[in-house]
Amino acid sequence: MMSTPDPQADPTPVTDSTSWVVDDAGTFTELREPSSPNRLVIEPNQWHQLSRKYLTLQLLTHGALLVLIVVAGFVLTAVARAEWIWIPFGVVALLSLWGIAILPRQVRGYGYQLRQDDLVFRRGILWQRVVAVPYGRMQLIDITHGPLDRGFGIAQLKFVTAAATTGVTIPGLSQATAESLRDHLIAVAESRRTGL
Predict the structure, then answer these.
(1) Three-state SS annotation for the chain
(2) What is the domain extent for residue 83?
(3) 126-168 pLDDT tens trace
(4) Are 76 and 116 in the same domain?
């Protein structure tokens, strides 16, 4: 017996969420994980990472902040003629140096993967955060980039869902990757919402 197609069925093909191909050239290749056996573990699918340009931009930004702190310390010491001013500026400068020292490891702790039903984003080594955003719940996918980001050819991709706590921002994507991923996720989200 031959079945006839249902005229009420949706003729729109479902987009495969894992078919998106990203050009990972210029990104980090090894995702840093905490060494603790109690870390959050996600199945070892293909993790995509941030552009190396993002680390360069962050190092330059933090380095410029450190220079401003040191210059402000010299100026205030010269104007006020008080040596004790270096105590708070020294503490802030040491914290900035510590931030610069751990920045490469922090940036390598960012990753995202496209699974069958959701996008998983993770960041952090000491304080881990892992968020799974279901494709059908994505309401807004936004690309933002400031003047420095544009100069380095990188962008941030932000996902907004109905629950404000699951908002995710993936920084440091190349401009082409951000646009390609946005278009792919919009297509997948639309196909999933029509199936809800």
Answers:
(1) CCCCCCCCCCCCCCCCCCCCCCCCCCECCCCCCCCCCCCCCCCCCCCECCEHHHHHHHHHHHHHHHHHHHHHHHHHHHHHCCHHHHHHHHHHHHHHHHHHHHHHHHHCCCEEEECCCEEEEEECCCCCEEEEEEHHHEEEEEEECCHHHHHHCEEEEEEEECCHHHCEEEEEEEHHHHHHHHHHHHHHHHHHHHCC
(2) 55-104
(3) 888 888 888 888 888 899 989 999 999 999 999 888 776 667 8
(4) no
